[in-house]
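pinned: reference chain
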Amino acid sequence: MAGLPLSFAEPFLLLGLLSLPVLWWLLRVMPPRPRRIEFPPTRLLFDIAPKEETPSRTPWWLTALRLLAAALVIIAAAGPIWNPPTGLAGSSAPLVILLDDGWSAASSWDARVKAADELIANADNNRRGVALVPLSEPARDITIMPGGTARVALRQIVPKPYSIERVETLATLERFLKTTGDCEIAWLSDGVDTGRGPEFLQGLGKTIGDRTLTIFEGGNPSALALVAAENAAAKMTVKVLRTDGGIAAGTVRALDQKGSPIGEARYTFAPQDRETEASFDLPVELRNDIARLEIAGEHSAGAVQLLDKRWRRRAIGVVSGSSTDTAQPLLASTFYLTRALGPFADVRLGDRGAPQQAITQFLDQKLPMIVLADVGTLSPEIRERISAWIEQGGVLVRFAGPRLAQADDDLVPVKLRRGGRSLGGSLTWEKPQHLASFAADGPFAGLAVPKDITISRQVLAEPDAVLATKSWASLEDGTPLVTGERRGKGLVSLFHVSADMRWSDLPLSGTFVEMLRRIVDTSGYTANPGAGVAGETGTETVAPLRTLDGFGAFGPPPSTAKPLSADFRDRATSDHPPGFYGPADGPLAVNTLAAADRIAPLDTSSLRARRASYTNSEPRDLRGILLSSALALFLIDAVIVAMLGAGIAALLRRRAAPAALAFAFILLPLLAAPSPVRADGATDDFALKATSQTRLAYVVTGNADVDSIVKAGLSGLTLFLGQRTALEAGDPVGIDPARDELAFFPLIYWPIVPGAPKPPQDALNRIDAYMKQGGTVLFDTRDAIEATPGEGASQTPGMLTLRGILSSLDVPELEPVPREHVLTKTFYLLRDFPGRFDSGQTWVETLPREDDEEAASHPARGGDGVSPIIITSNDLAGAWAMRPDGQPMLPLTPGEPRQREFAFRAGVNIVMYTLTGNYKADQVHAPALIERLGQ
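pinned: its structure tokens
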């Protein structure tokens, strides 16, 4: 239509409007006027008010309403289409279309192509030439084409999967404009500034000069992007970016390498937010399988975040063999390891149960890395499982300690000398050592060597021809601090110091954290050697495997894609499009945006230009609006007719039949909930009996004579404790380590029966866990008299049986009870611990050595906790055993007058030691402390 951007699909149907006058005449003459006939009796009815009245003719305004509805139907049938103006000036000069074709334009690419196609169509109708300028191709020649050719060229342009540099196109555009002269410019902008936006706007204003510029912006949803995915300890997070404001929400989907969905996370924008976060609360195993994050419904490469093994959070099992982890957890090796590994790994502590049980659990969970801190003896079955796990790609990291120094197994990279090496003590000429260097071909290559780390004790490796190749870190004297070797697809590493502060101050340094991070990077998900682990020192390059297009879909890499270095961390470019590079089993992810990138709205207010919206350039069909309006008019007409004819009043006078409403309440009998299954009555009785009073326990051996003597002996010791101390203990309890709960008892007495079968591994694991959680087991071989002079007690049948039991337990390094040990002073002052015999030695966990000067000033020396194991051969229970009449059950050897009294005193000290720990070690210093305070 002239003067209006309105067209009709079927304009000949508008001839139907000519029938409206005829329709007016028909509506006015029908129904015909009634004839009036005089009938005198009807005058009697004049005084009766009629209930309903029918008008004699249709009101003119109702007729006009019906004609308007009919006119709307006729116009809608003609197919009216609203064609908004394009915003161009309408000159005859050539048209230059600048097209943003980066990743930010992909989500609304169809709207941009449609707008460009309409611009080309209008220019073609006016016989104007068209030049297409994709801003992602600065080297592309700009030529003026006919409209048809320009449409073909437009269909060949696709959005690029990386951020474009608009500034680089200005030089080519300036040369073209100087050659062409007058022209009209239309810029189809995506409204996103990914960098250097103000520079481009300033340059564009100078380049076009006085030429007419129309900028198409707005009318499309804001571009969204994903950056900075992080696999944290509890969840995976990713930042969602946008350029506009307002309240908005959406979903981020997580997919694996095969494109299968793993999870979804919601995100929400506040009105002023341009950045928000989506969180995936998934188990670490599922989070580690995520290879792609994408915004649902957003089809662009910027809305995709690809993840490789760098984003996979390893689950690491930590097992400690030291009982001090329970006594003083803030000084324990697990504390330092958890703090060091926590920022980049999920640490799972095996702090409940025996170390072998924790290792078995971690192997069943198929963790990629296990750390053993001072774990010594392992059963053959566990060693075989660990060896197979390492061959399949597991990483085993071990830390030295007293237990490992006494162990002998092959789960270390080098052969070790038994015992530890002390540096800086009064009995050695050697001084504490410092870290000297990291191996150039090891995982720690490139780390700065700290000068403040001091090593005071270490386990030494046996020198051999390959020791140097297995040393990753060395001390100043050349001895290794960290060694490692690859076995199959896995790795075995050993720190020759403890994971706590006992042997060195390495756990307090930042280097310790970085060393563990380097080892963690080699664990799991790849069979290829990590950096510095039998790998090449040169920079490796990887070829593109599959890349993303501008819409975020995977496809084969383009011919222009080039290989990149294996340590590439930057954003995608035209030479390195986003996607996966390298081998399929361990690809490297390259993303459209780097973690620190942010997007902002592009402010074009500084340009002198017309503004147009993408939505304004789309034709709009008006048939739906017209038909809806006609329907509304017909409904209004129906209501008016009903009101004029009193139809509504008649409807209101009708009485609807009352609906019978029935409410049925069904009372379901309450089903009595089944009472919970109670534990076995005997187990409950055992727990109540064990916890009602402090009780001593003994292991039931199955030998009736031994068990009766041990029970009588512990009963005699309990009576002696009640007479001489404040402890009122209950009767001793016989236990089966494989069945009964051991945590109720502070001390378990285990008499060794020569030749008895070895307890099952489950029972030994429970004993191991009991000792690790602070309990003490007193092993008594009761054979000191059988030890042959010169051979030692280790050759007796009882000690051989004990060695078979201890071979499956993770016991610490042992030593005879020193004179200054707190065990000799907990209640009585003792020099030895006699029983029925007085020739045997009593062994406890080895305490850290002190200098002679310190030892002289310390009347008692105690560890961080109670020794988990005490070994004797003096038959203590035999000396404590008393008959009901108060007489001893067994004679003593050699039978000194006060030997039985000292045996009871030894028992009192042992019980008090297990109950109070190193309390006495602190109390004996009280006089010196009081003296100092007085000064």
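why pinned: The chain is about 30% helix and 20% strand. The radius of gyration is 45 Å.
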